[in-house]
Write a structure and sequence with these properties.
single chain; 3 helices; 4 strands; SWIM-type domain-containing protein; zinc ion binding
Length: about 100
């Protein structure tokens, strides 16, 4: 997953909301190519994401557009953080 950390920054300013939880992300290697990402279906038309695997384009959308899917846990949501903490620790999280 190291490729995600190193390459997600490339999508800043290159992500476009198309509507209905579908986004376009411009390719970092080919400026005329863009990838279509459906966050509801958890897929991207890039070689990695086309079969539902997590790709850097999905991570970029989650990071810069504040959108999640079932591959990405929304850690900026306080209720979700509390819920995940309860699952992991077996007790309520102190706020």
């Amino acid at each position: 997953m190291a490729f995600l950390k190193n390459n997600v920054e490339c999508a800043r300013g290159k992500t476009i909301e198309e509507g209905n939880n579908i986004y376009s992300v411009l390719s970092e290697k080919n400026s005329t190519m863009k990838y279509s990402v459906n966050m509801d279906l958890v897929c991207c038309d890039c070689p990695i994401g086309k079969d539902g695997r997590l790709c850097k384009h999905q991570v970029a959308i989650a990071k810069f557009m504040d959108v999640s899917n079932r591959n990405i846990i929304p850690l900026n949501d306080p209720k979700q953080k509390q819920y995940l903490y309860y699952i992991a620790a077996g007790k309520e999280m102190d706020l």
